[in-house]
Write a structure and sequence with these properties.
The structure holds 2 protein chains of 2 kinds. By secondary structure, chain A is of the alpha+beta class. Chain A folds into 2 domains: about 1-95, Beta-grasp domain (Ubiquitin-like (UB roll)); about 100-240, Fumarate Reductase Iron-sulfur Protein, Chain B, domain 2 (Orthogonal Bundle). Chain A contains 7 helices and 7 strands; from the N terminus they run E-E-H-E-E-E-E-E-H-H-H-H-H-H. In chain A, the strands form 2 sheets. Chain A has a 5-stranded mixed sheet, with helices on one face. Chain A has a two-stranded antiparallel ribbon with strand order 6-7. The termini of chain A are far apart. Chain B is about 35% helix and about 15% strand. Chain B has 3 domains: about 10-245 and about 375-450, FAD/NAD(P)-binding domain (3-Layer(bba) Sandwich), CATH 3.50.50; about 250-370 and about 595-655, no CATH class; about 465-560, Methane Monooxygenase Hydroxylase, Chain G, domain 1 (Up-down Bundle). The longest helix of chain B is centred in the last third of the chain and has 25 residues, at about 520-545. Classes of the chains: A alpha+beta, B alpha/beta. Chains A and B meet through helix 1, helix 2 and helix 3 of A and helix 3, strand 6, helix 4, helix 13 and helix 15 of B.
Chain lengths: ~240, ~650
């Protein structure tokens, strides 16, 4: 099975053809298997992230034919093009720098009060959101996240713009950061003030970008548009400019 | 110009790892006023905790008479008395407070409205003497969110992800005999995302870097990052490691297809009453599987492989078709299998196909590494110790702490189910607090000269030539680790491993590493391989000293170590010249009465299997239907179990 692996070193992208050798007859390998075999054979220094091989840890996301996929559970197909996730800056080969996302949440996460009774049941929706494995597939086509890169992708920054420093945390949010805030809002342990603060943070991270957006896609099937973005937009109400309503 | 620059930083506490243990250590140390740096090679919170089954031990969650002493004894019986009593006491003392800490970070269990506690699973699972295991929606991922919150929301914590702690830096204290002769002054970090070395001055370091299962990749169900980093850096700093031969292998992991290799497919108990193991000729190599210990199952599989009768992928066949064929009890069996360990069943069904999912055909299985019970030798606050018995901090290294899987002494020779997530928070919290205290008391400014040799040596690695590939050497090491220090061992193989490690060490210096500083994969492979070699040597040295089978350690050429003999732990230590020394440390044995009762229950179990198998078929089926109904009750669902837990192998259960 022939695939293309897009590698990156010192800012240069190279497309490497790799011919996957099935290890058992009729094998239908995952993309991660292809990367592991490439590293074990022709590309010993190939850089890529992975962890649990069972779609739980969320670190092995790569773009397959320009769409984010979780490599350990995405079947490889003849002619697939495997490249780093386009929505984050590349460090090396298929490894992108992820930490600008979590860092933007610093100082935005408190919601509860000390001395709460902990023995309170959380609503089902809380657990729906906790299913997030932080794979960052949701950054794809997100207009809010794109604001960090002048409305496009990190690789296509127009002249006169500098890449933001992920070490400072990105200025503009994304479905993942909104999910974290919405999770705080529906946590029964959160105070009213904490709920308001979470909404303020969502506004500050650019919730207005969601007005009129067709919606985002989750890597593990969470209803981001309905359970996260929709809820936040409804709560923000008049504070947002008019869009599609 | 140097290939890579060095940045200097000052902190009170460095925490290595950001999983269940590291996140707690960092957040507690910060609450205590310390300035904390978390160093994590994977993204924050992406650890074995996140990919676990998400069941935690919370004392008294299910029964009011669940005493601290009861839980502590429970852990030691389970661990074959290799555990340190002060440590199991600490576990029992803090399990509730630790769990509540996770809840302040967003972990939300179901609540038992009547008892006003977290809802515990319905039965006192197998090895636990009480109901005290609390399950969670989204399994370990729910705990992963808590770890993430603990690190991200605390403003006094700085963190580096994509960052490898390469080594600790220590210096002589010049203290009298009552205090440690060496102390931690910091560590050197490779920050891959910025392409820098970071020299961190800090008087306290908490190692919470997870386990070593990647030594056996792909025959493991754990995170890739378990390259033994914590054990290796501690050993190189002169710390002692305890019970390193005690690697827990799950017997029934998948052997194929390659994408699923190593993932857990079941436990002895999920084989149910009529499940047997067969070799490739169809010959039964173990019956009564559901009552066996994991070690017995692993040994049976590996003996078949040794004899040339293994399956194509180096395992054997778990045959549960007899359960399924029973007219009355068959449907009950299928529900039992699907509900008692759902994640494992799903792995098997997806990997092996529909017929296997229906148990119409047998499953190819092979053991896989799951958890390291041994680790850095520490006291009940996670502080490094040396000496005899439970150990003495005055003979340890000042400022060095361990927590989570990196720490030894908690579980001895076997770990009870649902305890690892509690271990993380209990000892993460304790180590974080103790580290902050050490930092407060520390006055001496470190001598930067102590960092110089390590920095120089590391800088030189960038641009190292020699034609070896670190990733390829890792694969060689992994293959040999499986054969020589894996689920079954012999003296000859352990010796072979020791000599191979010597050769690999030489080849390590010939690994080619390009000069670029940002995410240099070859350097990462080199650094991890170096730690894996160190860890493999520690395991091999301890395994050589333990000349019989006990707990996770199975010797094909040795006897079974009786529960009645005097228990001992192995302690290994790395000399300044890089060689490893091993010695035994005596442990107190359980009262004889408890042990006798264990033996009697074991014999009774074995008799039951014989009787069941000798029954006429119709009677057998009726009897089984009755038993399934008793287990699954009105809900028609089996109580969930945890891979690695005592309830998954009832043959081990009464030890607890």
């Amino acid at each position: 099975m022939k695939v293309e692996i897009v590698t990156h070193r010192d800012g240069e992208a190279t497309v490497v053809d790799y011919d996957y050798q099935p290890r058992v007859e009729g094998e239908r390998p995952m993309v991660l298997d292809v990367l592991l075999q490439a590293q074990a054979t022709e590309m010993p220094d190939l850089a890529f992230r992975y962890g649990c091989r069972a779609r739980n840890c969320g670190v092995c996301t790569v773009d397959i034919n320009d769409k984010p996929r979780i490599a350990c559970r995405a079947r490889a197909r003849e002619g697939d093009r495997i490249s780093p996730v386009a929505t984050l800056p590349v460090l090396s080969d298929l490894v992108v720098r992820r930490d600008g996302i979590a860092r933007q949440m610093r100082g935005r996460l408190s919601g509860g009060a000390q001395g709460n009774d902990l023995n309170v049941e959380a609503p089902e929706a809380y657990h729906d959101l906790t299913a997030c494995i932080e794979c960052y597939a949701c950054l794809d086509n997100c207009p809010m996240h794109a604001r960090n890169f002048a409305g496009g992708l990190p690789a296509d920054m127009p002249e006169g713009h500098e890449l933001p420093d992920p070490g400072e945390g990105y200025r503009w949010g994304n479905p993942f950061s909104l999910l974290k805030l919405q999770r705080i809002r529906i946590d029964p342990m959160t105070t009213d003030a904490g709920r308001e603060a979470a909404l303020d943070h969502a506004m500050d991270l650019g919730l207005d970008a969601c007005v009129g957006c067709p919606g985002c896609k989750c890597g593990v099937g969470i209803d981001l548009k309905g359970q996260v973005v929709g809820e936040l937009l409804a709560a923000a109400g008049d504070r947002l400019p008019d869009g599609d309503g | 110009m140097m290939a890579i620059d060095t940045e200097w930083r000052d902190y009170d506490v460095i925490v290595v790892g950001s999983g269940g243990a590291g996140a707690q250590a960092a957040s507690v140390a910060a609450e205590e006023g310390a300035r904390v740096l978390v160093v994590s090679k994977d993204p924050i919170g992406c650890s074995d905790t996140k990919i676990s089954e998400g069941i935690a031990t919370v004392r008294a969650s299910g029964a009011d008479d669940d005493t601290e002493e009861g839980l502590s004894v429970n852990l030691r019986m389970g661990g074959g008395d290799l555990n340190v009593a002060a440590i199991t006491d600490a576990f029992a003392e803090d399990s509730q407070a630790g769990y509540d800490r996770l809840r302040t970070q967003g972990l939300r269990p179901s609540i038992d409205a009547e008892r006003h506690t977290p809802q515990s699973l319905p039965l006192p699972l197998g090895g636990h003497t009480k109901r005290r295991s609390v399950g969670h929606k989204n399994s370990g991922i729910a705990f992963g969110h808590a770890s993430w919150h603990a690190v991200i929301q605390e403003s006094r914590i700085d963190y580096l992800e994509d960052a490898w702690l390469l080594d600790l830096v220590t210096e002589e204290t010049g203290a009298a005999e009552s205090a440690p002769s060496r102390r931690v002054v910091g560590g050197l970090v490779y920050d891959a995302s910025r392409g820098l070395l970071v020299a961190v001055r800090a008087p306290a370091v908490v190692i919470a870097a997870g386990g070593l299962s990647t030594l056996f990749f792909p025959k493991t169900d754990t995170m890739r990052g378990n390259t033994g980093d914590g054990y290796a850096v501690a050993a190189r700093a002169g710390a002692e490691l305890v019970d390193m031969e005690q690697v827990q292998f799950l017997p029934f992991c998948l052997a194929s297809p390659p994408s699923y290799e190593g993932l857990c497919a079941g436990e002895p108990v999920t084989a149910s009453f009529l499940g047997v193991l067969r070799d490739r000729n169809g010959k039964i190599i173990l019956d009564g599987v559901y009552l066996r210990t994991r070690a017995e199952c692993s040994a049976a599989i590996m003996r078949a492989v040794e004899a040339g009768n293994g399956s194509p992928n180096g395992g054997a066949y778990l045959d549960m078709t007899a359960n399924k064929k029973q007219p009355l009890s068959g449907p009950y069996f299928m529900r039992f299998l699907q509900t008692c360990l759902p994640s494992a069943y799903n792995n098997a069904r997806q990997a092996l196909g529909k017929a296997a999912g229906k148990c119409e055909v047998e499953w190819e299985v092979r053991p896989g590494a799951h958890y390291q019970m041994g680790g850095i030798r520490a006291d009940e606050h996670g502080a490094a110790v040396g000496g005899d018995g439970a150990g003495d901090t005055a003979l340890g290294i000042a400022g060095l702490f361990a927590a989570g899987q990196a720490m030894g002494g908690v579980f001895g020779a076997n770990r009870l189910g649902s305890t690892a997530l509690t271990e993380n928070v209990v000892f993460g919290t304790r180590a974080g607090r103790a580290a902050a205290e050490t930092a407060r008391a520390s006055r001496a400014a470190p001598d930067d000269a102590a960092f110089a040799p390590l920095i120089a040596e590391t800088v030189k690695r960038f641009g190292q030539k020699g034609g070896e590939a670190g990733s390829a050497l890792k694969l060689e090491l992994q293959r040999e680790s499986w054969d020589c220090i894996g689920p079954v061992r012999t003296a000859a193989r352990i010796d072979r491993m020791a000599s191979l490690i010597g050769e690999w060490r030489t080849r390590l210096d010939r690994v080619s590493i390009p000069v670029h500083a940002v995410w240099n994969q070859a350097f990462v492979e080199f650094a991890e391989l170096r730690n894996m070699l160190e860890t493999a040597e520690a395991v091999a040295t301890a395994a050589r000293e333990r000349d019989g089978s006990v707990g996770g350690h199975v010797r094909l050429d040795g006897r079974n170590i009786s529960a009645f003999s005097t228990p001992y732990s192995t302690v290994v230590r790395r000399d300044a010249d890089g060689g490893y020394r091993v010695r035994r440390v005596a442990r107190p044995r359980q009262p004889l009465k408890r042990l006798v009762s264990y033996k009697m229950q074991e014999n009774w179990r074995k008799l039951q299997v014989k009787m069941l198998l000798m029954m006429p078929k119709g009677m057998q089926d009726k009897k089984l239907e009755k038993r399934y109904r008793a287990i699954m009750g009105a809900s028609g669902k089996a109580p969930e179990i945890v891979p690695g837990g005592a309830e998954g192998a009832v043959g081990e259960a009464t030890r607890a």
